[in-house]
Design goal:
The protein is 25% helix and 24% strand. It has one domain: Purple Acid Phosphatase, chain A, domain 2. The radius of gyration is 18 Å and the shape is globular. The structure holds fe (ii) ion (FE2) (2 copies). The site of one fe (ii) ion (FE2) has 7 residues, from loops. Keywords: Hydrolase, Iron, Metal-binding.
């Protein structure tokens, strides 16, 4: 089973229609869009989609921030660019990121759900989506319209997630937890995550520490990584990074993750774009499952 994990595509569109910016401070949004235009190379998006298709994945998982300011034009553009991956809705799962709820109106009118709700098993979180007899994605959503980029998973959602796994007819042997927000970050990114963290990460971590071996697919910090958080030794935390990002610190090339699941083994390849060509880099090749 091959899963391609994408995140933080951040389609952007300049807009001067202040009426669309109700619920945010227009100057803030315009500054954001101006910054994004420099940081995110939108002209590369179709090539990224073509690269994903060339890998022939069984499933594509996108962990949020498809847009920048959650405006209708951005959702329409994101859908258009991603259309080649969306032909079979059984083979793609899409979650929201905080940017997909950037305005009050986008949040209250469920703009993300209108655009991409077909690509989740249901519109409310949590949910469990079976990919095959052994593999399932547990979808969590900590995004909300808020004046900070910080997220929070409602306690009721966590309670339901616990029940979903407990009640599942046979816990999926290969569990993939999908969330826009990571619980923890590797040292070079700890400060960045602290500023835009999941406020109740401790609560989520305390539960996940008890669910056994799992993969945790996330985004939000625009850097690809594969690591095991100190407090979660049974978790392989995977961040797909942002495929169009121009990293000013040049710590990481942009790209996405190709995750091969073979029985209990997991091989993770960072499909990295070095500015000229794709460079596949093996991040993980180890036994992850089977200890539960
Ligand atoms: Fe993002
Ligand atoms: Fe984000």
């Amino acid at each position: 089973m091959k899963v391609v994990h994408l995140s933080d595509i951040h389609v952007w569109r300049y807009t001067w229609n202040v009426g669309q910016l109700v619920g945010v401070r227009a100057w803030w949004m315009l500054a954001l869009l101006r910054g994004r235009a420099h940081q995110f190379q939108l002209e590369r998006v179709d090539e990224v989609v073509a690269r994903v298709r060339s890998l022939n994945p069984d499933h594509v998982l996108i962990t949020g921030d498809l847009t920048t300011s959650a405006l209708p034009d951005e959702f329409a553009d994101a859908k258009r660019h991603l259309a080649p991956l969306m032909a079979d809705r059984e083979r793609i799962t899409i979650l929201p990121g905080n940017h997909d709820r950037a305005t009050r109106r986008s949040s209250t009118t469920n703009r993300f759900e209108s655009a991409f709700g077909l690509y989740m098993p249901r519109l409310t979180f949590p949910w469990l989506r079976r990919l095959d007899d052994e593999t399932a994605i547990l979808g969590l959503d900590a995004t909300r319209f808020h004046y900070t980029p910080r997220g929070r998973i409602p306690t009721a959602q966590l309670d339901q997630a616990r029940a979903l796994l407990t009640d599942a007819p046979g816990r999926p042997r290969r569990l993939i937890v999908a969330s826009h927000y990571p619980i923890a970050a590797p040292p070079p990114y700890e400060r960045e995550l602290a500023a835009k963290r999941l406020e109740n990460a401790d609560e989520l971590a305390a539960w996940l520490a008890r669910v056994g071996p799992h993969i945790f697919c996330c985004g939000h910090v625009h850097a690809a990584w594969a690591f095991r958080p100190r407090e979660l030794p049974d978790q392989l935390c995977l961040n797909a990074g942002a495929p169009l990002y121009r990293d000013p610190a040049a710590l990481q090339p942009p790209g996405f993750l190709e995750i091969d699941l073979d029985a209990d083994r997991v091989k993770v390849v960072h499909q990295a774009w070095d500015g000229t060509e794709w460079k596949p880099i093996v991040m993980v090749d180890e036994r992850v499952f089977g200890k539960a």
